[in-house]
């Protein structure tokens, strides 16, 4: 295969096209690359770039490992997972007095409606570890009366009193003041190692021990509704754990089918990529038409469901009134749900149609470039599997960050705070010492009657404990840095690989052997500093955005229009800044992979090169990304539809094989999200290939003129499509 050489007429066409569509070279747009007869693609003789940042990056990684070791030595995840009593001791912990007491019991569960439970994640009442929950209703007053008849009543009741207390004749008022025993016990059942009232519905009425109303030891009237509100205060803290266990059960039952769905999406994505090489134009147009038809069908289906629900009573309830529900069928019975879906699908359909109408020529240009990218990937198929390496790296980094965060969060000492039933107590939520608390005047204060010194959370007074928050921020920053470095390494490696394809005079004969491994070695050996530099800049901006989101959550209750306006402006500015840095980094990595220069120089040259070809950038950038996005949506949506029909037993042939699940949406969402990520992994290779070929094409136009002395290295089809596209408009 001989290299294609252009005639002088083609050179003149390029020059006229440059005058019409591209920005002329000048001081503002930088100087274009001059012709170099020795240039044969990615520079092989290189030197290390951004060495200082490379050294800092290595030191940070070593420090990050040290942080994980320190957190592992000080932390104890059991502090987060297991219930603790009022003295900070674990229920059911071996080697302690609670070894045979795995369940947490609340002396006065009615206090769990106090707002402080949301602040400290602890109910402001004495909490004891017990071996079993009470199975009968009784008050302390009733126990004292019955104790005179039989000692068995006291022997049973004292199981739920403080250890060592054995004085059933002590006055009730003093017992409740000293929190020696609960004022009453109600039939309960263990719920995630916590005793909660055992509610039973009789004839449509919720009861406890066949009662709807009862009196406590102080003869105060209580109702089952109060118990329900108190139980919700606790279950609100552990519902997530219950949901998590049910989700784990669903995964255990359906993991084989989830794996089959992901393998199906892998096969479909691979077939889609292979077909793009031979039928790129036809396949992409079919994808666009299929997505349009699917959206139209979705709109029709939503309108039909909406017309039926409007005749059904109770369907006009707002979603916000329903709240968060794990059963998705509840939302499907609301008209507001289908209205939101209908509007969303309609807006998406209109956007796609408008883009096709006004950008139809640009769509054809993008398809041509994707066809050329298909040829490059076809010659270097190993690039399709490089995202697996990135996935493994990200898995390691995410796991290390999560484990380190949990150990840091659980590496404190037991901290005790004043818990008061009266929220106006001035000492509420202040630190206290349980050993000397009864000797202080806090519990005797007028507004703090009944206050107790209870375990609140784990913290500490040492320097290590005081800087735990900063250590968590450092953990997050380094995690973001490592994640962005992994993505940068992938982009630089793939860019160097596809650049070696583009600059080969004879394709595929002149493509270097093992181009992917060679590009990976160059990026890691010479440009770790440059990749780390770009990743650090992006990570800092992302961390600032996370902090802004956190501050916005904290300021939600403050009615200050100015602060909300400033917060929204800051969020918008940093969002735009992140997008800009991400785009500039991506193009800079391509230039680093080709020319081997440092990050700043590469970013400047990439920026000026794109500015000199700004019309072509507008033609290709968004349209190409849009076409690839449609491909990902089609693959994920198609596999998701099959999974939906399977898990809802709507495929008669194999409906007996469907496992019984708590929530069918658990495996369904896993398959859909997993399919999208798999398709994204394949198409990210395509996106990098397109961007690399485009930058190489623009550089080729500046280096060469198509003459026999300075021939173009692009394919004739690529020159015909891209070289004339801007002039045509």
Mean pLDDT: 76
What's the multimeric state? single chain
Tertiary shape: elongated
Radius of gyration: 34 Å
State the low-pLDDT regions, or none: 1-28, 114-121, 233-238, 724-729
Instruction: State the helicity in percent bands.
Output: 55-70%
Share in β-strands: 5-15%
Number of helices: 22
Distance between the termini: 34 Å
Total number of strands = 12
What is the makeup of the main sheet?
A: 2 strands, antiparallel
Protein name: Choline transporter-like protein
Family: Belongs to the CTL (choline transporter-like) family.
Pfam families: Choline_transpo
InterPro entries: Choline_transptr-like
Could you characterize what this model shows?
The chain has 729 residues and is mainly alpha-helical. The protein contains 22 helices and twelve strands. The strands form six sheets. It has a two-stranded antiparallel sheet. Strands 3-4 form a two-stranded antiparallel ribbon. Helix 12 (360-379) packs across helix 20 (614-647) and helix 20 runs antiparallel to helix 21. The longest helix is centred in the middle third of the chain and has 86 residues, at 224-309. The radius of gyration is 34 Å and the shape is elongated. The two termini are 34 Å apart.
